[in-house]
Amino acid sequence: MNSERPVFIPFVYGLAAKLEQIPLAEITSDASYYAHSLEDACELFKYDGIVNNFDSTIEAELCGCEPERHDDYAAPRITSCRQVELFYWKLPNVPSCQRAKTLLSSVFLPDPAHW
């Protein structure tokens, strides 16, 4: 436990992927890669903790938009999207969106077959 300096808890999303030499698209599509890369960054730099990313494009991707990546280690961006109907109880693209499945599997326990 750190008691001699202020606590330092950085975002290490892109840095963790660079350290593992695995593009972000691949890291965020596999929960095991993701967890290990974050743990490795935390251990290497002796951080007090780490903050996982907040990917604001996942919701848009679930609604049918295509995320664009301009670099292997940059966060994706949504530059255009078709008009979608948002009055569904169940989002239709969850089974085809690996990033969403990875995210949901890290926070929910239900079987992904029910999505």
Keywords:
115 residues; mainly alpha; 5 helices
Largest sheet: none
Q: What fraction of the residues are assigned to beta strands by DSSP?
A: under 5%
How much helix, percentage-wise, in residues? 25-40%
Counting structural domains, the number is 2
Secondary structure category: mainly alpha
What pattern of helices and strands is seen along the backbone? HHHHH
Overview of this structure, please?
This protein has helices at 13-20, 24-27, 31-45, 58-62, 98-107. By secondary structure, the chain is mostly helical. It has two domains: 1-53, no CATH class; 55-97, no CATH class. The longest helix has 15 residues, at 31-45. The radius of gyration is 16 Å and the shape is elongated. The model has no long low-confidence stretch (mean pLDDT 76).
Task: List the SSEs and their pairings.
Layout: H1 13-20, H2 24-27, H3 31-45, H4 58-62, H5 98-107
